[in-house]
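STRUCTURE:
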């Protein structure tokens, strides 16, 4: 099984399935850009790094993305020059080529080289690592799409669009029949959260994996009620790039607003994950605020009464699996907005939008509602709904149960 992921955060939700396949005696190789290969090795998985072709010099229309970074699907068109749309590193694309064709073109040679050496029987890919679909088509092996786990409308739409947009480039690489439908779609999103029909996907249990890191003694047990504030890898990457947090203010301003909202809640212990670049920008906080660069979320959330975050699927579903209510502060990104809205509909959390996300008063009121037994769906408390959702997740088939299903596709 060849595993293809666009980014380290996208790989994490697939690691339990990769482990299950290895434990069953199958061979597994993760292929991806440098940061994906590094994340795979930290997770104990074999990995091959796919080199990226050099990016042409930026034109006057827009700045070209630098190696190792990609804007989200909604912003790709604005990030590419007209020269890049016409051709890329000597490989001719269709006239007016789509940015997704360019993105795949940057790495497809490296992916194919690793795949031809490994000779996979099946490709397991992230919904927006379309290179995995191309590799499966060129090698004529089944492709299985592994969704991220939260409610989203992006992944299904992206696959359909990618099949049309990448058919001609894939044919030039040897996939004469274009890009076929994925043989199977695995969805770790529990049925009550899904946005599409259950018949369209195969359910699999969401098993939290937040990376290989030590678990400090304080993580599993709290002396008082505990709140975790985290913006995940999404926030860390924004801080490292020096960019604003998509829109509406930088990460330091967002963390400062949340901290001020929590100050009056003296009965709460607060754990905040803060990137090193942002930490000096925070104002001094009382001792009950524990500031760390990163934390083992799976272990930590078991001791939490509330998680405040940006709507990232990994963070959201880890909290769901541990039965913890959530306060969601999503930036205007479709995947994050879908996840936040879905959790609010399910009654396991509340969503703040726009200026409310940096308004200490609005934040404090939401924290009070979520930690003081406020009502969620069907007149039950957020905590009860969160525990019910955790039970629903636990009842889904474990990754090990799906390995024979994947083998049957070969």
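SEQUENCE:
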């Amino acid at each position: 099984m060849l595993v293809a992921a666009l980014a380290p955060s996208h790989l994490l939700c697939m690691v339990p399935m990769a482990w299950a396949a290895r434990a069953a005696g199958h061979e597994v190789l993760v292929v991806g850009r440098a940061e994906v290969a590094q994340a795979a090795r930290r997770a104990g998985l074999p990995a091959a790094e796919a080199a990226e072709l050099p990016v042409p010099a930026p034109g006057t229309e827009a700045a070209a993305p630098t190696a190792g970074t990609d804007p989200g699907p909604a912003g790709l068109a604005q990030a590419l020059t007209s020269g890049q749309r016409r051709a890329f590193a000597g490989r001719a694309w269709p006239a007016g080529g789509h940015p997704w064709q360019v993105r795949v073109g940057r790495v497809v040679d490296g992916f194919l080289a690793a795949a031809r050496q490994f000779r996979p029987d099946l490709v397991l890919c992230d919904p927006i690592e379309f290179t995995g679909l191309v590799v499966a088509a060129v090698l004529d092996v089944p492709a299985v799409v592994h969704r991220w786990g939260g409610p989203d409308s992006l992944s299904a739409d992206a696959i359909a669009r990618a099949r049309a947009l990448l058919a001609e480039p894939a044919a030039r690489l040897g996939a004469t029949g274009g890009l076929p439908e994925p043989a199977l779609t695995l969805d770790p999103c529990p049925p009550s959260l899904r946005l599409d029909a259950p018949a369209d996907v195969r359910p699999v249990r969401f098993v939290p994996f937040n990376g290989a890191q030590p678990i400090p003694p304080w993580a599993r047990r709290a002396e008082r009620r505990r709140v975790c504030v985290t913006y995940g890898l999404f926030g860390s990457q924004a801080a490292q790039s020096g960019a604003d947090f998509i829109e509406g203010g930088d990460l330091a301003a967002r963390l400062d607003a949340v901290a001020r909202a929590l100050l009056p809640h003296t009965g709460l212990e607060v754990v905040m994950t803060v990137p090193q670049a942002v930490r000096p920008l925070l104002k001094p906080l009382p001792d009950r605020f524990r500031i760390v660069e990163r934390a083992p979320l799976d272990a930590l959330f078991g001791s939490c009464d509330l998680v405040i975050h940006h709507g990232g699927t990994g963070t959201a579903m880890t909290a769901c699996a541990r039965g913890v209510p959530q306060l969601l502060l999503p930036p205007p990104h479709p995947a994050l907005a879908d996840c936040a809205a879905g959790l609010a509909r399910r009654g396991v959390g509340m969503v703040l939008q726009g200026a409310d996300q940096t308004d200490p008063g609005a934040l404090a009121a939401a924290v009070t509602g979520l930690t003081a037994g406020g009502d969620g769906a069907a007149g039950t408390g957020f905590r009860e709904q969160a525990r019910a959702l955790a039970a629903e997740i636990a009842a889904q088939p474990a990754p090990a149960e799906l390995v024979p299903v994947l083998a049957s596709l070969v």
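REMARK: Residues 225-394 form a domain with the Rossmann fold fold (CATH 3.40.50.2000).
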